[in-house]
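Worked example

This section walks through a single chain of length 199. The input is the sequence exactly as stored; nothing has been trimmed or padded.
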Amino acid sequence: MSTEGVDKSKRRFLIGATTVVGAVGSAFVAVPFISSMQPSAKAQAAGAPVEADISQLEPGQMMTVEWRGKPVWIVRRTPENLSALPELDGQLRDPDSAVPQQPAYATNKYRSIKEEYLVLVGICTHLGCSPSHVKSTDPHNLGGDWKGGFFCPCHGSRFDYAGRVYAGVPAPTNLEVPPYKYMSDTLLMVGVDHEGGAA
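Given that input, the structure is written out below as tokens.
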């Protein structure tokens, strides 16, 4: 075949244009495919650490944040709440937190980094119900010796103000203490280990 009269500059242009269009098309096909292998924004958010501003939390109050799809309670305990904890040891299944339901830095009599603030996953360790926060001054039928804490109305499990389970109830273990750390005196980060990185 004769190549006389063929405009080589047009041929080069057409080859170059076809190559560019092909590359762009390949990129459009590849981006969604590669993106589909990445976790979604919702999935990332579900496991991401969560900030909690505790600056407005008054003694005796509780706030809830969501981390990994679970409610996390932050309770500012009163001096009375704290002083009652040792009195309950004889009524509890695991008063010394021997079962590892908390990070090492929260394995103490308060089950917390700072004794005033309690951080717990608000899910009963029996069947996953959500207990209620019941103060000693709230109307209740938990007995005259109730010092306050958490009561699961589903099956009657009770927990004190350190999230420790009472003996003789269905829940087998203390409430879980999630990994957390203080970013400042008034800001907590749930999902970040006090002694390291994200959990």
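What to look for: The first strand starts at residue 50 and ends at 53.
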